[in-house]
């Protein structure tokens, strides 16, 4: 095996490791952005209005013979 081939292989392996590290960093940044966007959307949902005060007898039975 030639020495230049060994150096080229070592450089290629190191370059691949760097590319993977950069790819992982970009992926984590994208996930952080998506998480903050999702949080903003969830917080933007208006609160559910409360139901009007109904008498206690309403909503307890269902008329199945109608």
From TrEMBL:
InterPro entries: YjfB_motility
Pfam families membership: YjfB_motility
Top-rank taxon, per record: Bacteria
Protein name in UniProt: Motility protein
Organism: Duganella phyllosphaerae
């Amino acid at each position: 095996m030639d020495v230049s081939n060994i150096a080229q292989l070592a450089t290629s392996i190191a370059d691949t490791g760097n590319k993977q590290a950069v790819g992982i960093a970009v992926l984590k940044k994208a996930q952080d952005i998506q998480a903050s966007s999702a949080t903003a959307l969830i917080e933007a949902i208006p609160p559910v209005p409360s139901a009007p005060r109904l008498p206690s007898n309403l909503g307890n039975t269902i008329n199945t013979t109608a």
